[in-house]
Design a protein that fits this description.
Elements: H1 7-17, H2 29-38, H3 44-64, E1 70-74, H4 78-92, E2 98-102, H5 104-110, H6 125-155, H7 160-171, E3 180-183, H8 191-203, E4 208-212, E5 228-229, H9 232-248, E6 255-260, E7 267-268, H10 280-285, E8 290-292, E9 306-308, E10 311-315, E11 323-324, H11 330-343, E12 349-352, H12 359-370, E13 378-381, H13 388-403, H14 426-445, E14 448-453, H15 456-472, H16 478-492, H17 499-502, H18 505-516
Parallel strand pairs: 1-2, 1-14, 2-3, 3-4, 4-6, 5-7, 6-12, 12-13, 13-14
Antiparallel strand pairs: 7-11, 8-10, 9-10
């Protein structure tokens, strides 16, 4: 909670204002104290400021101990985020080092008014800020519901010992509000458009912005082909735009994640102007795919020439005017991009999109960056675009063949390895063990501060609805709902099983009592069917 005052201190302050125990209008001190404590943040900008400090503390802890990495799941509604954080709190007893990821992919695919769209920045800019606000409304409501339950417990405490025990719970209550890493895509326009949108996201509560180095009007999902990057100077201007937005709004600890798609991006939109050897433009231009100018390959009308390494060459240009990079240059461009984004762009972390989830590949690139920026930290997308089972099984198979542990014919190549018959084999179990340890390994070996899954709630919703629908519209009928949903909610202690309470019916009853006393018409009486789910 943001309130630094304890229950006793806050109550003393309120009693000074209202020594008779209530306001002139009959509002009691008890109720004022409760509502002040339930209101965990005054504005969402306050959330951004506080959560930025939380992230900075976590980053410092990670620098001291790389096992202290952080995690998030991508959520496309406030309810998804709320249930994720409540689950984490039940599991760990704390929300520390758990964040929410806001995916531009899911905003485009699920949260815009134009229908389901691909991840190409075609959705409304306002949809991203709207989702941030919605998530924080839901997380704050989880605080309100939980705090209201504690105050109900306080009112029924039978003696001072019991009362003091509840007050201790109130004073030590940990908010469900956690940092959001918000995807601003490529900025939805030029550097000024980026700045304006960044301000909207920050005012909605975002303490961390993730921005990528693709061309904003040709943006593609990081796991699709056809990606086009911008020159480094252009991207630095957008990083500065984000920083200025944070500084203007007083979010001094705001965090910027600079994402480079260079590993899979083979094109650039323009050739920047180099002012002197070795500058940012020159280091970018050197990777362009060129061909020599000769008598057999002369300059043609409308073609461009570059002077490189003491001779003139022609950069290749596609029919659409885009310029291809040299084949196989992606890894080196990624490393250079990351270094520039950290040292000259002022980014706090980098994000590298990879083709496959390979710890050695990620570690190799990050360690090269760390030769220049020793404390470089990475946010890594544990992407659903990877076939994790197939990738890890292939990695194990290839390694074991190289080590002589197995022969090439012991396990099949390719998609055959996906078959369920390999689940319980030695290879299948080893691949699963590596999956379980994957995040630990890349955090300790490859500088990954934050592990996220971009689209898990998209896939979870699809899978869960399929599972329920197959049973409900099939042979199991009502048993399908009870067996796959409700029975599991009850046994796991998922509070949403009492859905009326989860969305604030008890909050409403409490407020009615605050203003109406005995006249309050409450929903939570004996006839409420939610009583069937009373705690054991």
């Amino acid at each position: 909670m943001t309130h630094r005052k304890s229950y006793a201190e806050l109550r003393a302050d309120v009693e000074k204002r209202f020594p008779k125990g209530q306001t002139a209008g009959g509002v009691s001190v008890d109720d004022i104290v409760q509502l002040k404590l339930q209101n965990s943040y005054d504005t969402h900008l306050d959330i951004a400021r506080h959560m930025a400090s939380v992230m900075r503390e976590d980053m410092a802890a990670y620098d001291a101990d790389p096992t202290l990495s952080t995690q998030s799941l991508g959520c496309w509604s406030g309810f998804h985020a709320q249930q994720m954080i409540k689950s984490v709190k039940r599991l760990r007893g704390t929300t520390k080092r758990a964040y929410v990821y806001l995916s531009g992919w899911m905003v485009a695919g699920l949260r815009n008014t134009w229908g389901h769209l691909p991840d190409q920045s075609m959705h409304e800019k306002t949809a991203v800020a709207d989702l941030i606000r919605e998530i924080y409304v839901s997380l704050r409501q989880a605080d309100e519901v939980a705090m209201n339950d504690l105050f109900k417990e306080l009112k029924t405490a039978g003696n001072d010992e019991a009362r003091n025990a509840v007050i201790e719970k109130i004073d030590n209550f940990e908010s469900h509000v956690v940092p959001i890493i918000a995807d601003i895509d490529a900025g939805f326009g030029n550097e000024h458009a980026t700045y304006l949108l960044a301000k909207e996201l920050i005012q909605a509560g975002a303490c961390c912005l993730q921005i990528e180095n693709q061309v904003s009007d040709a943006k593609q999902c990081g796991h699709q082909d056809g990606k086009v990057t911008v020159p480094r100077e252009d991207f630095i201007e957008k990083l500065r735009a984000c920083r200025l937005a944070f500084e203007e709004l007083g979010v001094d600890d705001g965090v910027i994640v600079a994402r480079t798609d260079s590993l899979g991006a083979g094109l650039t939109q323009k050739v920047p102007v180099s002012q002197q050897p070795g500058d940012l433009a020159a280091e970018y231009i050197k990777w362009l795919k060129t061909e020599p100018i000769t008598d057999q390959n002369p300059m043609q009308e409308g073609e461009l020439a570059l002077f490189q390494n003491g001779e003139f060459v022609k950069p290749q240009r596609l029919a659409n005017g885009l310029f291809p990079f040299k084949e196989g240059s992606g890894r080196d461009r990624v490393i250079e991009d990351c270094i520039v984004n950290l040292t000259e762009g002022g980014a706090d972390m980098v994000w590298i999109e990879t083709d496959t989830p390979n710890v050695d590949e990620i570690a190799g690139m990050v360690n090269a960056v760390r030769e220049v920026v020793p404390n470089a930290k990475l946010t890594y997308n544990n992407s659903p675009s990877f076939n994790w089972t197939l990738n890890l099984r292939k990695q194990v198979r290839d390694q074991w063949i190289e080590e002589g542990k197995i022969q090439a014919g012991d396990y099949p190549e390719g998609n055959e390895l996906m078959k369920p018959e390999f689940d319980d084999t030695e290879l299948g179990q080893e691949a699963d063990a590596r999956l379980q340890n994957f995040q630990h390994d890349i955090s300790t070996r490859a500088g990954v501060f934050h592990n996220l899954i971009t689209l898990p709630t998209f896939h979870l919703t699809a899978k869960s609805m399929d599972e329920l629908s197959r049973g409900y519209f099939g042979e199991d009928k009502m048993l399908a709902y009870v067996k796959t949903v409700q029975r599991e909610e009850i046994r796991r202690g998922i509070s949403a099983v009492k859905h009326q309470h989860e969305v604030g019916s008890d909050l409403g009853d409490t407020f009615k009592e605050m203003v109406g006393g005995d006249r309050a018409l409450k929903a939570g009486g004996e006839a409420n069917t939610m009583n069937q789910f009373a705690a054991e």
